[in-house]
Structure formats: C-alpha cells, structure tokens
Amino acid sequence: MTFARKSATAAMLLAGAVVLGFFVRETVTHEALADQGGKCSAQTLKGSYGIKFEGIKFADDNFPTDRHFVSVSLITFDGRSTFTTSETGRFQGDLVSRTFTGPYVVNSDCTGFLDFSSNLSNPPHVAHGDFVIVDEGKGFFVLDNEEGWAAGGVGRRL
Prior knowledge:
Elements: H1 2-35, E1 47-57, E2 67-77, E3 82-91, E4 94-106, E5 111-118, E6 125-134, E7 139-144, E8 149-157
Antiparallel strand pairs: 1-2, 1-8, 2-3, 3-4, 4-5, 5-6, 6-7, 7-8
C-alpha cells in the first residue's frame, strides 16, 4: 500500500512539474516579446518565399470588362526593407513574366506594406500592397490595395 501511495505521489509531482514547465515557458516567451516592443521587423521577412496571387482588375475607361489575373512568384526579402520578385502569370489569358524590386515596411505588430512599379498597365504605375505576417515569419497574406483591383495572395517561406 505504501508503494502504491508513493508511486501515485511521484506521478502527481511529475505531472505538476510538466504543467508548471509549460506555464513558465509561455510566460517567459510572452514577456520576452513584450520587452522587445513587438515581435516583427524587416528581419522577420528575410529570405525567399513562394507566392500564389490572384484577382481582378475592374473595368475602367480603357477596358469595358473586368480582367482576371493569376500568378506564382518567387519573392526575396533582404531583411533591410528591399524585396525582389520574379513573377509568371496570366493577365486576361496573356502570359506575364516580369521581375521587379521595391521597398517594404514591417511594423512591430506584424503588419506592413510593399510598393513597386507595375507594368500591367500602360503607362506603368506604382502598386501598393498591404500584408500581415503569420507563423512567426514563415508566411504572409498580401492584399493589392490599389484603386480598381480586388486581388490577394499567400506567401510561404521556402
């Protein structure tokens, strides 16, 4: 009987230590992030990502119908607020293959934006995208935030 009681007590102490360990780990991690003033910076998006992007350019004075766009891209962030993209896609069925570079900004709350010169229109125009970083920088969601567009994509770290 004493052996069973000692085993039960040991098992309860071990379980309590495991639970306490998880609690301490989560508390320390949360406090470390708070001490850093946030958890994201330009360094969070350092490296290469694959992106699937799709959307619509709405009808305007130059084109009376909506135009569909879909692409896949390799985007590389340098960790110092500049990115380069190589993109292949279809814009209203026509092949698009382009490379562009631009600045990006990451806020401490893991939101941000990027800008680049888009040649999908004539004349080219500055494109603006807003994003949110997910999975500790392993991915992001991006929205083309230009007038006349409804487009977005998902990026995943390679």
